[in-house]
């Protein structure tokens, strides 16, 4: 009994080591639904979402005079569109706080900087950061 248990554990450990060593080759084969849950495979799981073109986003209110997506639309830009996560976050800020698209972009950027330890002026908040020589 213990022999089979130890043999099974050894084979499982060997398989885990082989998967870990070959993870760069295995990553593109992992389905995106599974890859999004695993930290290492997450960046291999990118796939553009349908309906996220510049035209769809401009029609959804993600455009202004200072951030004009129509230049991309009329210029025949081959990219898919704006980052889906960022666009959803800006839409959420616009809806919750009743602000314009430009104001929502500023709020999102300030929150992003604060999460990364940077004050709104762009200076790091870390006391050990070297800001001048």
UniProtKB/TrEMBL annotation:
This is Uncharacterized protein. Residues 1-15 form the signal peptide. Pfam families: DUF2015. Keywords: Signal. It comes from the Eukaryota. Belongs to the UPF0357 family. InterPro entries: DUF2015 (IPR018559).
